[in-house]
Amino acid sequence: MVRRRVGVMGGTFDPIHHGHLVAASEVAARFELDEVLFVPTGRPWQKEGVGKHVTNSEHRYLMTVVATASNPRFTVSRVDIERSGPTYTIDTLRDLRKQRPEDELFFITGADALEQIMTWKDVEELTSLAHFVGVTRPGHELRDMGLKDVRLLEVPAMAISSTDCRDRVEAGDPVWYLVPDGVVQYINKYQLYRGEHTPLGVTSS
Ligand SMILES: Nc1ncnc2c1ncn2[C@@H]1O[C@H](COP(=O)(O)OP(=O)(O)OP(=O)(O)O)[C@@H](O)[C@H]1O
Ligand SMILES: O=C(O)c1ccc[n+]([C@@H]2O[C@H](COP(=O)([O-])O)[C@@H](O)[C@H]2O)c1
Question: What is the pLDDT of residues 160-173, one digit of tens each?
């Protein structure tokens, strides 16, 4: 049986933007992936803290579904948002390995996330569960940081961040073309990032 090659694009996606999508698409092309699974975080422990707010996971999940819907190779997993407690990639990869024991996994991370990777939980074990692919990101140097199994890839430079998208919405500036059209419409529909509570009939996580 031929093993399927599956990219795993983990992220908070608050909101998902074209930097994420271009990176995933480029890794898929270069590494001949059959699928890229986008995995929105449940509780991103390194993004929590005093004065920091992460949008509830159902909104982030749904924006990710909207953004990836037109690409037949892109799929979205609820594995992290359905696990309670802080989100650790070691748990993501263990759960995905159980769900897909035959697949070869490629965990995709931008240069900024890769810079921090030695602080991640059980980092030594991560590379026994997946290959790691570090991609370039404007403003960050791409270095392998000593991970055992990591490949580095230059991707088209997209100087976009979720922080900037949130700030722009809050300031009333456009995010058209920074995020997919459907994500702009989703943000407007639920009035996200305007400093107000945005209910979806779910508890926030
Ligand atoms: N413009 C980009 N180019 C390449 N990789 C990116 C880009 N934006 C994010 N990534 C990578 O995508 C993954 C998920 O990123 P995340 O959802 O935290 O977005 P972000 O834009 O970094 O968010 P924030 O501004 O809220 O910190 C990380 O591995 C990150 O390095
Ligand atoms: O495992 C960890 O300790 C860990 C610490 C920080 C980030 N991560 C993962 O890295 C991915 C990008 O995270 P973020 O916070 O940059 O959106 C996402 O899948 C996170 O779960 C994982």
Answer: 999 999 999 999 99
Mutate to test the pocket of ligand 2, among 8, 9, 12, 17 (most ligand atoms within 8 A of CB): 12
Question: How many structural domains compose the chain?
Answer: 1
Which range of residues forms the domain containing residue 142? 5-190
CB 133 within 8 A of CB 31: yes
**54-100, pLDDT tens digit by residue?**
999 999 999 999 999 999 999 999 999 999 999 999 999 999 999 99
CATH number at residue 170: 3.40.50.620
In a domain, 134, yes or no: yes
Q: Which atom of ligand 2 is nearest to the CA of 8?
A: 19
pTM of the model: 0.95
Inside any domain, residue 199: no
For 103-132, give one letter per residue: b (16+ CB within 10 A) or e. bebbbbbbbebbbebeebeebeebeebbbb
